[in-house]
Amino acid sequence: MNPSRDLCNRAGEILGKVRPSVVVSMGGTANREICRLLKVRNTESYPIGWGNYVASRGDFGGGTWIGLPHLSRFAIMKRSESQAALNELFKDLD
Length: 94
Hints:
Blueprint: H1 3-18, E1 22-26, H2 28-38, E2 41-47, E3 54-60, E4 63-68, H3 83-90
Parallel strand pairs: 1-4
Antiparallel strand pairs: 2-3, 3-4
């Protein structure tokens, strides 16, 4: 039994039922797994003004995925150097 795999399978079941229009994930592992579960495509990366770190945005069936670096390590939400990237990541979301 693999608890991580079980959690990913359960998340996939939930996402398949609720059909979200926007999904936001944080951290490298979560971002990779959510991209895989949602079959995200057309991914673009946005430098967040913190070294070489980026945030990402892509499309999945009926929605938009946004992948952020983990906010416990990268306090980008109120950081002026990150605002341009955040504006692009979250633009045109209803």
